[in-house]
Amino acid sequence: MTTPVRSLLRGACFVAAPCALALVIGGAAYADEKDDKARAQKLFVDGRKAIEAGDKARGCAMMRESMGLFAVANTLFNVAQCDEGEGKIAAALEHWERGLALIDAKDPRTKVAKERIGALSPRVPRLRIVVPPGQPVSAVVLDGTELAPTTLSAPLYVEPGSHVIVVRAVGRPDRKHELTLAEKERTEFVATPAAPGPSGSPSANVVPTATATATTTGGGTPPPPPASFRRTAGFIVGGVGVAGLVGAAVTGGIIMAKADTMDDCRKTPATCTINPDDRATYKALLVPNAVMWGVGIAGVGAGLLLILTAPSSPAGEAGKAAFVPVPLVVPGGGGVGLSGRF
Length: 342
Hints:
The chain has a four-stranded antiparallel β-sheet, with no helix packed on it. Strands 4-1-7 form a three-stranded mixed β-sheet. Helix content is 51%, strand content 11%. The chain has seven helices and nine strands; from the N terminus they run αααααβββββββααββ. Mean pLDDT is 77; it is low at 206-227 and 313-341. With 342 residues, it is of the alpha+beta class. The radius of gyration is 31 Å and the shape is elongated.
């Protein structure tokens, strides 16, 4: 093997595996973002059509799914109107405010958004939950959703009606409170734990928990969509490709080592004799090395193609709404809001 060829193979072995891995990871991230944008826009357009055709439940479900992918201003405004139609004034206020934060003051939609915020804000109940200093409270759960520590003591948007608060403390039973809030009501709740039980053990009753934001609206975050089969296949095929490149790098390293040893013997034939095993290993690995390079390159390429063309999976929710328009092992080694609007 000539020196230029060995140098080229050595360089390829050094960079092939990490570069292939970076391509698979980077390609997957790009594919996810591209798929989400395209699906969010399609859901928005189809949702508008459904609402205008009178199928508000289906249209609002599409709007919410679009918002879960990319929450642009128009989507947030449409979801806010769906919320109002369902009587979810706290959720509507939050979505109007989020949409308003994404547009310029000169945007014609600003006037409508401010009008709706002005109309809803006085009506939405506020609930402030305070944990007194020194209390051994480990968690506060509102309507089945565990509040993040940063949300405590901050006024929360809540829907009018009944709510359940559970205060937890290690080694103590859960303390449950029920309260009903009317429109315009402002309430502060002091979260104190229950007294230790006789055995010092917590209650057997378990309240499901999840993470909540500062503006709790009583609804949970929908589960993430399942990965598509094509994307999963892309990662598998890409992984085989990366393994092939790693194998090619390993066998290439062995080939170069044997070639260097034989070249040294050729330079000093009087004192060195080429080992038949080195020659046999060198020849035996040439074909597998070429095959591994081919499998590696083809696998990484096919994996990226599958990942980039994989569709996103839907994850929506349904509801009724009223709508108001808004403008390897080898011989000798081994290894292995989106800016803009719809």
